[in-house]
Amino acid sequence: MTRADAPVATEKPAVTTTSDPRPALRAARYRSRAAAALWALPVPILIYLAWDRGVHGGWTLPLGIQMRYLPTPFEVLRRLADLAVGGIIDDSYSGTLWWHLYASTVRVVQGFALAALVAIPLGIIMGRSRLVYRMVEPTINLIRPIPVTAWAPLALLIIGFGDRSTIFLVFLAAVFPVLLNTIAGVRAVPSRLFEAAAMLGTRPVRTLYKVVLPASIPGIVAGLRIALGLSWVILVVGETVGIRVGLGALITQAREQSRTDLIVAVMIVIGLAGFLADRILVLLVRLFARRRPLLPAAT
Questions:
Q1: How far is Cα 186 from Cα 208, in angstroms, rounded to an integer?
Q2: What per-residue string of b and e applies to 136-172 under the rule 16 or more CB within 10 Å gives b?
């Protein structure tokens, strides 16, 4: 039999799979989040146990911290539950948590938004213009080291008691982290992007929001997250004088009445509020950026 007479092998059709990979990716994402939550649990549990043992045992920590004056974790949890729903301790603070939390959140959002509106455009201009940077940078670095707590008495004198002085202090705490990170983000934009924009005939003004702003968003987001945390820190300072409603005001009233369980409970609420605010900011950035790599994978 010659080679021409040999039977020709027929090729088998390629097997194509049409399975959707999205359920597997979604399941992997849920498993990753569950693992992250499990890894985060041991430290709070250890702190809880050490706190409880320290109070009952009357431990004295470095710097003279005497734990016998602290409330027990159970007393703080009981106070937290009473603040949230009332009917447990039945005093003037029962069930008032949401009222105070809402007032403080509104002040933080206003001061933080004002800082972002001022710092982001100014940071972009300072990052791109060497002349503007030389003119503004010395003044900023002169004002920036002044503690926000030092501004509090002056704010009360020139603004007065009330919400506006607190919003002003939150603005001061938030504006510099956003500004400095925006400048750094703008300066980190690769020069080849500007060269490509120039080759395409993009005008300098359009380059600012077509090239510079999208490329510097990771630095801006990092500054916003730092500033948001500082806003909650300074909130307590702003609400300690002349304000009756707010988490800082609640701490001041608790201090005057020596209610340590209320002080610690409100501190925990401020920490949780700051944590949730950061998560909401990250979620908004992800919704805005969709699949662009603007955030680290671990967040």
A1: 10
A2: eeeebeeeeeeebeebbeebbeeeeeebebbbbbbbb
Query: Which pLDDT band holds residue 1 (cuts at 50, 70, 90)?
Result: very low
pLDDT digits (tens, 9 = 90+) for 132-149: 999 999 999 999 999 888
> Six-digit token pair at 195?
């060269």
Q: Enter the DSSP assignment of 89.
A: S
Q: Taking Cα atoms as reference points, which of 191, 155, 185, 187 lies closest to residue 172?
A: 155
Q: Token pair for residue 280?
A: 């909401």
Residue type for 263, please?
I
Q: Can you name the residues that pair with 66 across neighbouring β-strands?
A: 60
Mean pLDDT over each residue of the chain, to the nearest integer: 85
What's the half-sphere exposure (Cβ side, CA atoms, 13 Å) at 172?
A: 22
pTM to 2 decimal places: 0.81
